[in-house]
Amino acid sequence: MNSLPKKVITFGEVMMRLSPPGYEKFAQANSLELVYGGGEANVAISCAYLGMKAAHVTRFPDNALGKAATQFLRKHWLSTEHVIYGDTMIGKYFLEKGAVHRSSEVIYEREGSSFSLIKPEMIDWEDVLKDADWFHWTGITPAISEGAAQCCLDAIKVAKKRGVRVSGDINSRDNMWKYGKTMQEVMPELVQDCDIVITSSRGIREMFGLGQSSDKFRVAAKSLMDAFPKIEKVVGKTRKSVSASHQQIQGKMWNGSEYIKTDTLNITPVIDRVGTGDAFAAGLIYGLLHYKSDMEALNFASAACALKHTVLGDVNLVSLKNVTSLTQGDTSGAIKR
Amino acid sequence: MNSLPKKVITFGEVMMRLSPPGYEKFAQANSLELVYGGGEANVAISCAYLGMKAAHVTRFPDNALGKAATQFLRKHWLSTEHVIYGDTMIGKYFLEKGAVHRSSEVIYEREGSSFSLIKPEMIDWEDVLKDADWFHWTGITPAISEGAAQCCLDAIKVAKKRGVRVSGDINSRDNMWKYGKTMQEVMPELVQDCDIVITSSRGIREMFGLGQSSDKFRVAAKSLMDAFPKIEKVVGKTRKSVSASHQQIQGKMWNGSEYIKTDTLNITPVIDRVGTGDAFAAGLIYGLLHYKSDMEALNFASAACALKHTVLGDVNLVSLKNVTSLTQGDTSGAIKR
Amino acid sequence: MNSLPKKVITFGEVMMRLSPPGYEKFAQANSLELVYGGGEANVAISCAYLGMKAAHVTRFPDNALGKAATQFLRKHWLSTEHVIYGDTMIGKYFLEKGAVHRSSEVIYEREGSSFSLIKPEMIDWEDVLKDADWFHWTGITPAISEGAAQCCLDAIKVAKKRGVRVSGDINSRDNMWKYGKTMQEVMPELVQDCDIVITSSRGIREMFGLGQSSDKFRVAAKSLMDAFPKIEKVVGKTRKSVSASHQQIQGKMWNGSEYIKTDTLNITPVIDRVGTGDAFAAGLIYGLLHYKSDMEALNFASAACALKHTVLGDVNLVSLKNVTSLTQGDTSGAIKR
Amino acid sequence: MNSLPKKVITFGEVMMRLSPPGYEKFAQANSLELVYGGGEANVAISCAYLGMKAAHVTRFPDNALGKAATQFLRKHWLSTEHVIYGDTMIGKYFLEKGAVHRSSEVIYEREGSSFSLIKPEMIDWEDVLKDADWFHWTGITPAISEGAAQCCLDAIKVAKKRGVRVSGDINSRDNMWKYGKTMQEVMPELVQDCDIVITSSRGIREMFGLGQSSDKFRVAAKSLMDAFPKIEKVVGKTRKSVSASHQQIQGKMWNGSEYIKTDTLNITPVIDRVGTGDAFAAGLIYGLLHYKSDMEALNFASAACALKHTVLGDVNLVSLKNVTSLTQGDTSGAIKR
Amino acid sequence: MNSLPKKVITFGEVMMRLSPPGYEKFAQANSLELVYGGGEANVAISCAYLGMKAAHVTRFPDNALGKAATQFLRKHWLSTEHVIYGDTMIGKYFLEKGAVHRSSEVIYEREGSSFSLIKPEMIDWEDVLKDADWFHWTGITPAISEGAAQCCLDAIKVAKKRGVRVSGDINSRDNMWKYGKTMQEVMPELVQDCDIVITSSRGIREMFGLGQSSDKFRVAAKSLMDAFPKIEKVVGKTRKSVSASHQQIQGKMWNGSEYIKTDTLNITPVIDRVGTGDAFAAGLIYGLLHYKSDMEALNFASAACALKHTVLGDVNLVSLKNVTSLTQGDTSGAIKR
Amino acid sequence: MNSLPKKVITFGEVMMRLSPPGYEKFAQANSLELVYGGGEANVAISCAYLGMKAAHVTRFPDNALGKAATQFLRKHWLSTEHVIYGDTMIGKYFLEKGAVHRSSEVIYEREGSSFSLIKPEMIDWEDVLKDADWFHWTGITPAISEGAAQCCLDAIKVAKKRGVRVSGDINSRDNMWKYGKTMQEVMPELVQDCDIVITSSRGIREMFGLGQSSDKFRVAAKSLMDAFPKIEKVVGKTRKSVSASHQQIQGKMWNGSEYIKTDTLNITPVIDRVGTGDAFAAGLIYGLLHYKSDMEALNFASAACALKHTVLGDVNLVSLKNVTSLTQGDTSGAIKR
């Protein structure tokens, strides 16, 4: 491992996130807090805070709101030279934060967004990936539109060709696929060139019809690697939701030869639950690039995920030191002066 | 049970609630958050969010503050055609929210309020109750003034006559009765025509001198029903205050033939403790009107009560789906997308 | 004990405390919440809220910010007639509040502050202490500058001479001493005239080279009292940081004849961790002045400390009634109406 | 004129209005203030504050945001029994408030909104208009979609048939018509059954090709009434924008026999410019229903318009007394105690 | 004039002032900004900011809100040792800030307040006034209750006896007198021992039936001094309210030998109109105590009054330097670095 | 002029700007709004919003506050690759915003800041300026420290050598120079290699002892160009401060052959006065790089300056279109939809 910072490229929609302040419900809100987020950009920003170079590729409307979204990415250290502009609507989601037995509620407004209207010819992946070490995508993107799915596939192919490592956080849900194709049709081609796949046993079963004989992650992961032999590691996490305010997290991985699991981290009270999976993915990328053992990498991913539960917004703003302190077992949260 | 939405009528004072933001103490506040609340209107609004029709009867000052209070009720789906206006002061309470071992503190300013000056002739209960299914009152109202007590009694009598079911959440405290009558004098006449009484063993003992032989709710409830034979069910709840931030709730009922109790619900951290009893009452009304068994109704009431602890303000803004999801055992608070 | 309120004098730097709202990180803040705090003034204010008279001696810049800091002290009931003004910078600290596994982070900016430039001739301690019952200082002050250390020593000597009781919360850290002297050089002279010392076994070991044979507080305290025979009581507390959001507190004291400990108080969730040690010191001063037994005083100190965790800002704003209610075992935080 | 309050019905899209606080630009906003507004609902609410009964007909998404929008209308005294729900997106506009030479900027997101997908069979206008005195529409609605245009035409025809007076604020812009029809095709049929038309000489020229010989409002208005003989009055206003912070307003009317103008009202500084035209329309409706002379009605409309410039949000919340005080010449804004 | 700071004593009710943020109307407010104010305390605080010693005498409820009000006075440099506590309600006023043609609206809630229940025996005026240079009262206080009027009269008599100069800002309105006495009965006795009276020609006419022959201030002032020969100066100001956002101020005085007027100061835009008369009174007191000529004193009063229009809240927080800079003709408001 | 965006480099301290919200005074603030600013970075950001490439060179502490300051620059489109980190304090200024006759007040805390401790060897100007078109500095920087002055001189020399155009906004004040050198000693060497100098007749007189015979800008400018013959244009502006809320601006230039002036722009009310001179400088840079005539460039500078008065914070966020619209005479501020 050389000493230059690694460079991560991500691709996907970035949405305006609008939330009532604190624990207000939609019916009570007279203002909405405004940040931006999206599964893949969340990963890129998290990587940047850990010290890596990171750029995100996306498409925004060509207006003041699209500019403001780009400024959010720049502020959080991303390179935005590959952001493109066109059409008129930015994707949005409205988030009402829950507590204890009251669930958070999310309302999406993504149809017809500038990102959903993206076309493959708009991005020159050879240029984008020319000095990258890693490319990361998620299962949300191919569900958005045919154009988005094709862009994602192009990126993976170029990355593979150039020797850029590829990770996919591939969980998706049938009801997200509205443009005429199903996830069962689209995902196999995307997954086959991935080095690292983050998913669950249910995801493997639903998307690929694999691992049906058992609920166990280890079994499903093995069957996925049998079907797609280029995959090197299948990674997941077990989340127990004691309540909206109390979560428990454990990382797990099948790397083709052994099945490893982290200790469970207990998070109470939760400050912001959104983006914790993306923090896990970013931690995994960092870990695999910087640690020698899969166990260390997985511990790093779990600690990053746990810490994101304490950060407001979609993105994990904690530093490398925050994460390593937790991986070394310091759960005390004692004041740093 | 027919399919038209049921209509609930409530009567009582609505106060301006002024609270320092978050966990600020009175000595720190430079602004006060403003909502409105009152035991009975809280019940009506909760019923409205559960899908019932609901109207609240009250009296406000004839000024911009009285109008704003009415607008709060309208916003939260109440019919306000029976709100009357006069005199010059709106009742108020100041709430400093506590945490852990620090108690919340409440300062009331209700003396001389427009509501306390209400007179029986100001309300035409025949008109108010003409298409109602349920009338609900609380033990706070008769403590406010002779006029308020008389209005309450009139309402109960008209309701009984018209076949409208009557529930009373009758807990009261001696020190609230300042106009010359005691709760021991006034409450019996109000309670005798109720179908459902929500109270505690202590309330039964202090108000009616009943159930003195035992601390048990079941015993006290039985003695109350013996003394007031029109009462069909006596309902209560056990609250354990582990700390201001951690509460435990269990519903209980004596329905004349059996004593039933719900499981205990564990709420931590508490977002807003005020109005949780009113949420219980509203849940009970909904439950008794929509479920076949008392156990289902009581479970619904307890779940509604538990959920209110997570909602800011006096009133329970959760939906029917929120409550039924919890009654079906889902305590995970997992995100709804 | 006579019935006039006791008067407490404290001396030390008061800093502007600037914190991102709620759980925002520095990278997210678009405004900073502004209060003022400092270990010794926190003690004085806490004493004032408990009903004692209290004055704080400090030095601020002679500008609008120095005036505003003084106004903060006045608002919180302190006498500020001995505040002096000069030079141009107010000490500051920036506080990012953590949660669960994420630590709070503090950035100090105290170098060159008006307080650090204080000179002994600026304060007439005979006048300041003329009607005082108690003088309190901390180990932070002598670390700031030679002038501050000398002022502190002068105060202790005058207090001793006048029969004013003296307490020192003496914990300090090597890295705070930047002006050429070490804590090992300076602290002994300051400690020798103290009646009450608040410290830890580690503090005793590092500052005085005492108690090295054992980690036990009792052993270290005894060795300290052997070395400085005017000390009457050595007091400490055990804090267990389960997480940034969950703390456990227990008071302990060696009074020359017996070693006493309070029950452990469990605080979850923590609202504001800063200043809890100062609340303990203030509680101890109140307790020793108003209770007959050390055990009662120590219980009072622990309860005050626990309650501070629920109050925003540096200073403990709870009332005497709040504390005594907790010392009497009421941990329920039930609403006070 | 009888003494019962008049009832006004309006129809049109209600949008979520999201604005950076105060004078922040989009690039600075970390939260957005949330209110709701739309040209026609603004008129209805304004009428309600003036003491009339008012109901608004619109269509919202069937989710928590559609409910919240309805609650906004209810809070501001509208009857919402004719609000219908379906589809998934609420129309939006983002407003950045300008000052002096800096223009306010508005970004609309209305394509595909629940309102734009409205169909004529969704509304029973006979029922909606059964006890109405007045129906008001604007030129924005027929520009949104074929369905919206058809609903609007249906409403006007039913209103005419039932003797309900009809006003249309018909100004529109070519670039708003995107669904295949032009305003020149659609507007004549809508205008022909109106009693009152609010427009400008430019609007008359662009929409109907009338009044081209002169820029004068009087000439254009006369030609419009010649072409559409059922129109009784053509009303407009002259606005001089000295700067974004300083506006001047004058009402004008051709009523078939005389051309009247109000005095010019000078507004500086402007608090919120949006919705001032709607306040004018509402004032005109009130004036024509409650005053004997057109001059009085026009003065009332101008005063209402001027006052709206001082109210935050889309809707004019001033009372009848506020307006009449200004029509009587009191421009002092002296405190009312 | 010696060099010790002068000491001013004031007496009157201090109210909680609750205002919607910025230009929100009552119907829009979800929080209320909280400060405290009252005509006489406003004068005292203003004097303190100008460098004088000042103490305010008032009565608050004996609860956390009364304490918080006292803390407000302390923060703003007042001595509060003569504040007394009792009963349960703090006087309040709700302020909706207007703009341009929209008037500010004020709703008072003072009936039954702790101050209104004050009794003469509660205050030892000999003690209060023992080292005072000036006593100031206003015409609001005797209107509140018989007890308040009597306290005010006692204070004036003791002040006169001790040689403390007395000023009264005596404007009052008939509708404020509700306890059985009229201002015509009460005011003469209060005024007769004043050295300085601040009033208007209308006030003189309505309260004393004097100066009826002319609207001119000079004439009315002269007749007042004829009737009450101990008065040395009668002072007033001309305010022109161009709009709620634009005010013009001119001071005027009859000192028994000459009639003097200041230049007119033009204030646009107004930030907060409330308390500007009190700032004038405070400026007058300062001016008369520190300047040789009445003209200088009157200029100082007018400048202080003008500056108050730019300060939020009831009280004038500007410094001596701010005022003298304006009296020296610098109206530029140029940045001070 | 080619079509690639021009690149501007600036160098100087960036301070944390802390201001009470709105018109609050320091004595009222409970929070401080946080942005960042500095004369030179303000110019760079303004250039970036106008469409140019811009990078700022500065030094921040190596902590979370230094990172946050960098993030502010990145968010506003600057390249921050030449920002360096070290030492521990960020420069600060506290800004209390005035209104009408009340001046804004600024308190600086810059002594000992990380920027003031900068050393020439920390910056490789050849690298920084390698693809630059313009370098801009101000007279504040050489006043800060010897190191800062030397860095500035190095930059100018390298720029001159590489053919990068250099502008200096050279106004300074004697009392800013505290490190042992005077502005009279230091400025000549810095100015002699500038192409464009922004200053005033007073600045020229005080710094260089030139133009003493006349107050006229034209005369002083000519004498400056005589003394420093490499200067091509001397530019200034006339500001009339009618009040803190009302400013008038006029640009002026002597270009060696003619003296030109713009029309006066009238700004009322002012939203934020700070940074308006920097907006003028940025406008001038843009104008000279993009327009053929000095008159057009000067008009552009004045319009940019005027618009900044309406933008909160230090930096001018308006777009090219905003400025050109004003230069074309549209002062209406009409809404852009």
TrEMBL record, chains A, B, C, D, E, F:
Domain (Carbohydrate kinase PfkB) ranges: 6-313
Pfam family, one: PfkB
A GO molecular function held by the record: kinase activity
Keywords: Kinase, Transferase
Keyword set includes Kinase: yes
Family, similarity comment: Belongs to the carbohydrate kinase PfkB family.
Protein name: Sugar kinase
Organism: Flagellimonas allohymeniacidonis
